[in-house]
Amino acid sequence: MQPSCKKYSFMVTTRALRRLAIASLLLASAAIARPPESSQNAPEFRLPDSSGTLQSLSSYRGQVVVLNFWATWCKPCRQEMPALDRIAREYASRGVTVLGVAMDQRGWAAVTPFLAQFPVSYPILLGNPRIARDYGGLRTLPLTVFIRRDGRIAASHDQTLSEAQLRKAVQAILLEDR
Questions:
Q1: Cα 81 vs. chain centroid, distance in angstroms?
Q2: Read out DSSP for 60-102?
Q3: Which among 7, 99, 134, 151 could disulfide-bond with 43, CB atoms 3.0 to 4.6 Å apart, if both were Cys?
């Protein structure tokens, strides 16, 4: 009888461990941060630009901000950048600012050569773990957050957006401000 009891005990323990592992995974996935919800205030940040000057989100208050999290190694991010550049240039006179937040672990050592090869007209800031956490953990890149003039989030998208989708989001915010 002893061997079968040990075997049964082992099966119960294995089954319990599996259930515990599954429960832990479910809890962990539920606890994963999500991008900020619409109508929330956008989390404040102070991030360095390429000259080392700290830029804060609050300094853009009164403007519509298109905050785009990206990385040099992210192919969809790179594909989205020309459209973001066109949006930045086209809507600047209407109070729209595009800010790129590079999330490369190697920092400016990776970003500077990339921007030399693929320049954009909008400011690029260097992200850090804190901004990643504040904006939902950045589970995927690109992440684009549309921020109203009053600092509240209008929308966030954790996927590549086409130029038409970017325009539609910016125009919707501009119409709200009328």
A1: 14
A2: GTTSEEEEEEE-TT-HHHHHHHHHHHHHHHHHGGGTEEEEEEE
A3: 134
CB atoms within 10 A of CB 51: 5
| Cis peptide bond upstream of 142, omega within 30 | yes
- pTM comes to 0.79
Question: Residue 143: how many CB atoms within 10 A of its CB?
Answer: 23
Nearest Cα residue to 148 out of 96, 108, 102, 101: 96
| HSE toward the beta carbon, residue 55, CA cutoff 13 A | 18
Q: How confident is the model at residue 177 (pLDDT cuts 50, 70, 90)?
A: confident
| 96 vs 6: CA distance, rounded Å | 69
Q: pLDDT, tens digit, for every residue of 114-143?
A: 999 999 999 999 999 999 999 988 889 999
